[in-house]
Design goal:
about 65% helix, 10 helices, mainly alpha
């Protein structure tokens, strides 16, 4: 089954709004074929990220050559390389990154499970990179100062812990008119 059809359908209607029957229709296959390959939407989401190579990249060990390069770099250069590498990964998988983040923000349980798997793996990989680059000792020893607290940080923490301060409903695509805007993407 062409996974770009699944990505397009979920991007258009959201995970909740996308049905396996509609996916089968758009892919030109019998719905039983869809269920043969994917037991649930969660399996479908996981397969989308596996096909894009995003899950495999996060669970594979960090290549030793990369760790050696980071160890030989200055702390600031190592940090820049880690950030740039992660931004490149997000950019290359932009449709998938956008999909999982939007669906998690819209409280989709399947997206939360798959997103949590990805973010846990990504966090583990970042820990290895930071530790092996010698950055775990602390940024403050380089003369950097912690950023001053900003009002937006407190607002984000309040929103993420209790879900209050929701923005007005909006339509971001067909089938999404009943969804709320995430306060995380509204102008502060």
């Amino acid at each position: 089954m062409p996974m770009d059809v699944a990505l397009g359908l979920i991007d258009e209607k959201g995970v909740r709004g996308a049905s396996m029957r509609e996916l089968a229709r758009r892919a030109g296959v019998d719905v039983r074929s869809v269920y043969y390959h994917f037991e649930s939407k969660r399996d479908l989401l996981r397969s989308l990220f596996e096909q894009a190579g995003m899950l495999a990249a996060l669970v594979q060990p960090v290549p030793q050559e990369l760790l050696d390069l980071l160890k030989g770099a200055t702390p600031m250069d190592a940090l820049i390389a880690i950030v740039e590498g992660n931004l490149q990964m997000l950019h290359e998988g932009a449709p998938y990154s956008r999909l999982i983040h939007v669906e998690v923000l819209h409280d989709d349980e399947d997206a939360k499970v798959v997103g949590d798997e990805m973010w846990t793996s990504w966090g583990n990989q970042l820990e290895v990179l930071v530790r092996e680059a010698g950055l775990a000792e602390g940024f403050w020893s380089w003369g950097l100062r912690p950023p001053a607290p900003e009002p937006a940080v407190g607002r984000f923490q309040r929103i993420s812990t209790n879900g209050s301060d929701r923005g007005p409903a909006h339509t971001s695509g067909p089938g999404r008119g009943d969804r709320e805007t995430s306060p995380c993407v509204e102008p502060l």
